[in-house]
Task: inverse folding
């Protein structure tokens, strides 16, 4: 068997990280794979060179494989950027973050494919809601669980501070404003930190930092509090090694997005033993245990109407779609409870250590070989 895999695995995005994980999973099986990158971002020559520098050797091997005699063609990209291959079984792989994409032309592209691969039951249902007739399969992302074992990883901080980590785009969908509101409302003069590795789509680091600083000041002004807990925001691009150092430096991993198909950073942090705070929908309901072997907490959500996405895709993320809004009062309670849990981490049989061990065990379900 031979597989052709087309994706934007050399972009600077979560989509590209997911593609790298799938490619490395395929490589581990011994199946012949011909990997071909398709850029979706307008990267500079320097950025492309840096990405190639850190590209895993397995990916470079797969790029050398020719496209002759391909049995299966996997297009891992946005549907409107793909086209099926001739004389091969065609699979389309993509994420859905809202209830449907009926306002777009995506359904017509999806129906050209023999099979659809997506990452959660929530995404699969959204694809069905959009009128797609192709057979749909669910395949969670794969992560490198061995990255946490790198002895060269270092902690960024020497202080004894409970650190909540957020990794993701500064956007309405990622609900960064809600995260800051909940965090600011709950904490004051305590050993706590919100560490945010983020970026602004379409902006360089300098532009992004300027925009985010203004947004943070706006949120603080509207909160009208006398004191605020520490927030450390990193906008500069980081290497995979540096990202892993963020995981090693943190106490918890947090996501309270309005819409997610999977959210790769949450699952990447599991192998570092990071308990999670996640919204109660989608892949988080499917893959993060709530009771037995608990590895974190789910924030209750309410159904909400999609609003405020201005990303140049006029027929996507429209007001006809639904997503979710996490309950920020419940978020506060969970963050406070987990802060107290962290403070008691050195006690025998502590809840923090139990969740941390459960997180590491859970990570094994998403390994390349699994």
Result:
């Amino acid at each position: 068997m031979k597989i052709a895999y087309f994706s934007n695995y050399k972009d600077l995005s979560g989509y590209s990280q997911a593609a790298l994980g799938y490619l490395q999973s395929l490589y581990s099986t011994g199946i012949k794979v011909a990997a071909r990158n398709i850029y979706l971002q307008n990267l500079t020559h320097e950025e492309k060179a840096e990405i190639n520098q850190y590209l895993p050797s397995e990916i470079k091997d797969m790029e050398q494989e020719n496209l002759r005699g391909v049995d299966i063609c996997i297009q891992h990209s946005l549907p409107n950027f793909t086209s099926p291959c001739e004389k091969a079984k065609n699979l389309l792989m993509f994420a859905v973050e809202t209830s449907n994409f009926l306002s777009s032309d995506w359904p017509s592209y999806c129906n050209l494919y023999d099979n659809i691969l997506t990452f959660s039951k929530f995404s699969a249902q959204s694809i069905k809601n959009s009128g797609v007739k192709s057979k749909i399969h669910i395949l969670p992302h794969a992560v490198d669980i061995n990255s946490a074992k790198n002895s060269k990883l270092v902690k960024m901080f020497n202080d004894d501070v409970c650190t909540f980590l957020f990794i993701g785009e500064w956007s309405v969908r990622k609900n960064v404003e809600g995260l800051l509101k909940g965090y600011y409302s709950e904490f004051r003069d305590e050993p706590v930190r919100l560490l945010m590795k983020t970026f602004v789509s379409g902006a360089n680091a300098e532009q992004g930092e300027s925009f985010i600083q203004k947004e943070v000041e706006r949120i603080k002004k509207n909160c009208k509090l006398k004191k605020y807990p520490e927030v450390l925001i990193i906008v500069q691009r980081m290497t995979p090694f540096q990202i892993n150092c963020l995981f090693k430096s943190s106490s918890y991993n947090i996501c309270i997005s309005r819409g997610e198909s999977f959210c790769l950073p949450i699952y990447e942090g599991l192998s570092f033993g990071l308990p999670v705070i996640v919204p109660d929908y989608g892949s988080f309901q499917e893959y993060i245990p709530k009771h037995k072997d608990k590895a974190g907490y789910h924030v209750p959500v309410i159904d909400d109407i999609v609003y405020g996405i201005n990303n140049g895709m006029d027929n996507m993320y429209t007001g006809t779609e639904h997503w979710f809004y996490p309950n920020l009062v419940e978020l506060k309670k969970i963050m406070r409870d987990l802060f107290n849990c962290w403070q008691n981490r050195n006690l025998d049989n502590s809840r923090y250590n139990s969740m941390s061990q459960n997180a590491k065990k859970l990570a094994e379900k998403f390994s390349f070989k699994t």
Remarks:
- The chain has a mean pLDDT of 95.
- The two ends are 20 Å apart (CA to CA).
- The first strand starts at residue 2 and ends at 7.
- The first helix runs from residue 14 to 29.
